[in-house]
Design brief:
Length: 304
């Protein structure tokens, strides 16, 4: 079996683990960056190989590659190529926007914090005046390692948020990059908790998880108070919510972040991440995630 794995950035540990397990399984994986593809006369190829000649495609990430992802979606449909994840044949990469994810989850009655979406910074200021603090503000387009998630303890923190985004643009310009037009904000109620769960699902089934300590309540909400700990058994209700959320979104390989509310004991989905990195997961859980991901791909693509 020959599997194409599409990716944008190099994550050596992830590539190494998947390549190691592929070798153990006796299958060939070919790592392909979107900008290494070419299309001519309706044929999409990589280094002279027609992509329809692969047994299946696994998308490790799509991100901003909207044009290529759409072309690949059309090509997969035309030639009946099976892919992972499912959402790429429906919503496509637009699913990665937090506004879209929030709508899908709440529409499906998945436990998700009360949310609102606004376009501009001025709209955000007006919306915040309607909410009780503390609350969460997220960049709908996302941000690596939690850099797009903000904790606001009061309205005064709104100015800190504006200053933080302006500073990021200043640094970008100093590095010769174009400034970002920050727009699209998701406002969410803050669910008080004693730490968040990271649950990994493959083929919509929970394969394990770990728990992180509560987040440090500062403007950029990306740092925990201590180290995460592995879970011998993921709580049944936590696993079920993670599985249901991944299925609703069509994310076959997902790393889902969840919390249990201190006030009501209810499990809430905070984020569903497609194609998650799994170094920490494997270390904390002892589960061979790379093998299970490839097993899932082989089982799905073998039925082509």
């Amino acid at each position: 079996m020959k599997i194409a794995i599409f990716h944008r950035l190099n994550f050596e540990e992830t590539e190494q683990r998947l390549s190691e397990e592929a070798k153990n399984l006796g299958i060939e994986v070919v790592w392909i960056k979107y900008r290494e593809l070419s299309m001519s006369d309706g044929v999409i190829s990589f280094n002279g190989t027609d992509l329809k000649d692969f047994d299946g495609w696994y998308f490790r990430a799509v991100g901003s590659e909207l044009e290529w992802s759409k072309l690949l979606q059309l090509y997969a449909r035309k030639h009946n190529v099976k892919i992972v994840d499912d959402y790429l044949l429906s919503e496509g990469p637009l699913r990665r926007f937090k506004s879209v994810m929030s709508w899908q989850l709440r529409d499906a009655d998945i436990s998700y914090p009360r949310s609102a979406y606004v376009e501009r910074m001025d709209d955000l200021e007006k919306e915040l005046a309607k909410w009780e603090f503390p609350l969460i503000v997220k960049l709908s387009s996302g941000g690596r390692h939690g850099m797009g998630t903000f904790f606001l303890s009061s309205m005064e923190d709104f100015n800190l948020l504006k200053d933080r985004l302006a500073l990021r643009n200043q640094k970008a310009v100093e590095m010769g990059k174009l400034p970002i037009d920050y727009r699209g904000f998701l406002v969410q109620e803050y669910i008080e908790n004693d730490g968040d769960f990271r649950v990994m699902t493959v083929g919509y089934n929970c394969i394990g998880g770990f728990k992180r300590q509560p987040k440090v309540e500062k403007l950029v909400l990306n740092q925990s108070e201590g180290k995460s700990v592995g879970l011998d058994v993921v709580p049944e209700d936590v696993a079920k919510v993670a599985e249901d959320a991944a299925r609703v979104l069509g994310v076959e390989v997902a790393g889902t972040d969840l919390v249990r509310g201190k006030k009501d004991g209810k499990v809430y989905v905070i984020e569903v991440n497609e194609a998650p990195q799994f170094k920490v997961f494997e270390k904390r859980s002892g589960v061979n995630a790379a093998r299970l991901i490839l097993d899932h791909c082989v089982n799905k693509f073998g039925n082509r």
